[in-house]
């Protein structure tokens, strides 16, 4: 080190000045941290944390530094929520309205234009680490849908239980233990690594051992991506769909026993730590002010024993149109653009992220198809007081089950738990979500006026589906819409 550099380094150390940041690109970086089945009531910032056995200081700090949403809405299942995020379209349009079991055709057609494709066309580096769940064949993997690199699984973590390679956690009931499963019946699933333009390669078999260590790999690879692109001065879109706290909810061995409150609490502590690793990488690269961080969950909490999630004050479970299914944690941080400490109860839907993040990246959303997401950038940044969305239709699979508008909900089909049979109601139930968080009292008779604005939402969607027929689930590529 020459003398000038030595003096500069010493001066910086004495004044506690941070190391010079990498040259920041004109376009802002976008980091989306998506948790899997993280219920509304799990985080400290949402009334959970220590009540669930583990504080969540890193995510709570993120909420304090940005804006926290109490009426952010998702789709009732994993695949539909991820489809909505990637396309800005209600999944009923894309044939991705439900989770599909192994062996059936699944995923987004290549005709869909993903958020990664939009941002890639604007010069962004794009990466995903974790569950894709939007296509389990090679030609529908993320690296064929706009991502430069991917590490993760095509479908779901349930499949880690097929082989029951690790059943040592005595808190959990026996998981599978090879009760009739072998690879000739249902092939084992794998963790993949892929880069755009190259075939994906299998890295490891997905089982309970690799499931436990997957989020450590996700965090390490996402951090490396952030560092590489920050150093190169290239704008990036980092999509980090962690596996936690999806069932089987198992912590990394490094976290097992850490809280003393069981494996679920240990997994919650790990989830907070992994989020902190991503945030630390952004800070260490000196790009915090030029990076929009999105923290969200794709669904409400788990409904299956012994991994049930906590959904705060809301009733029901995911795979329904109850608030426990639709409302999820959602936090945004963008220093200098978003004021810290703000909380809002205005309606936002996960499809809005597509349109808004495209705007952030300077991209134009497709004009040849209906896009359901609305641009919320002015609302998110505080330039606009109210959300640009008042409501949305709530589908459970291909069933129009309810509609939300402002602080009201109209149920057409009643189903409280994913394991309950859906019941078509002879007369819709009207719920005031401000006075009846548990959705116990039908007040439609006193408030029939709400039917008009709510049915307009339904009518507009039905007219759009007639004009632009939805893609059938399982439609193969190539797909072209009917003229």
TrEMBL record:
Record's keyword terms, sorted: Calcium, Hydrolase, Metal-binding, Signal
Domain Sulfatase N-terminal: 28-362
Record InterPro entries: Alkaline_phosphatase_core_sf, Sulfatase, Sulfatase_N
CDD domains in the cross-refs: ARS_like
Superkingdom as given in the UniProt entry: Bacteria
GO MF terms, alphabetically ordered: arylsulfatase activity; metal ion binding
Cofactors named for this entry: Ca(2+)
Signal sequence segment: 1-23
Entry similarity comment: Belongs to the sulfatase family.
Name of this protein: Arylsulfatase
Organism field: Pseudomonas laurylsulfatiphila
């Amino acid at each position: 080190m020459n003398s000038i550099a030595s003096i500069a380094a010493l001066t910086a150390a004495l004044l506690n000045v941070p190391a010079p940041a990498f040259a920041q690109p004109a376009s802002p970086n976008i980091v989306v941290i998506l948790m899997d089945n993280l219920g509304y009531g799990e985080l400290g910032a949402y009334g959970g944390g220590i009540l669930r056995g583990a504080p969540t200081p890193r995510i709570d700090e993120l909420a304090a530094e940005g804006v926290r949403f109490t009426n952010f809405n998702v789709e009732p299942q994993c695949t539909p929520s991820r489809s909505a995020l990637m396309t800005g379209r209600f999944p009923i349009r894309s044939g991705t309205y439900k989770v599909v079991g192994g062996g059936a055709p699944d995923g987004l057609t290549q005709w869909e234009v993903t958020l990664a494709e939009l941002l890639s066309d604007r010069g962004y580096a794009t990466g995903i680490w974790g569950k894709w769940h939007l296509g389990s064949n090679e030609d529908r993997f993320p690296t064929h849908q706009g991502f430069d690199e991917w590490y993760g699984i095509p479908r779901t973590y349930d499949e880690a239980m097929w082989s029951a390679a690790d059943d040592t956690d005595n808190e959990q009931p026996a998981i599978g233990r090879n009760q009739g499963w072998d690879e000739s019946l249902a092939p084992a699933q794998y963790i993949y690594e892929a880069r755009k333009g190259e075939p994906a390669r299998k890295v490891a078999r997905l089982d309970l051992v690799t499931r436990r260590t997957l989020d450590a790999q996700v965090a390490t690879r996402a951090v490396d991506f952030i560092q590489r692109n920050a150093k190169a001065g290239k704008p990036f879109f980092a999509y980090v769909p962690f596996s936690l706290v999806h069932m089987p909810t198992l912590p990394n061995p490094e976290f097992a026993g850490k809280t003393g409150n069981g494996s679920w609490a240990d997994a919650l502590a790990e989830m907070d730590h992994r989020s902190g690793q991503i945030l630390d990488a952004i800070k260490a690269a000196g790009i915090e002010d030029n990076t929009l961080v999105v923290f969200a969950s794709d669904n409400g909490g788990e409904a299956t024993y012994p991994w049930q999630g906590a959904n705060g004050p809301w009733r029901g479970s995911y795979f329904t149109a109850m608030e426990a299914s639709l409302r999820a944690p959602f936090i945004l941080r963008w220093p200098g653009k978003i004021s810290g400490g703000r909380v809002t109860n205005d309606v936002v839907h996960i499809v809005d992220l597509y349109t808004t993040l495209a705007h952030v990246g300077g991209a134009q959303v497709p004009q040849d198809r209906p896009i359901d997401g609305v641009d919320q950038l002015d609302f998110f940044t505080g330039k606009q007081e109210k959300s640009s969305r008042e409501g949305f239709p709530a589908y459970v699979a291909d069933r129009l089950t309810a509609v939300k508008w402002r602080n009201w909900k109209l149920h057409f089909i009643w189903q409280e738990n994913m394991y309950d049979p859906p019941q078509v109601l002879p007369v819709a139930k009207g719920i005031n979500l401000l006075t009846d968080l548990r959705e116990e009292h039908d007040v439609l008779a006193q408030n029939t006026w709400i039917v008009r604005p709510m049915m307009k939402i339904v009518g507009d969607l039905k007219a759009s589906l007639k004009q632009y027929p939805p893609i059938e689930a399982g439609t193969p590529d190539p797909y072209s819409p009917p003229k």
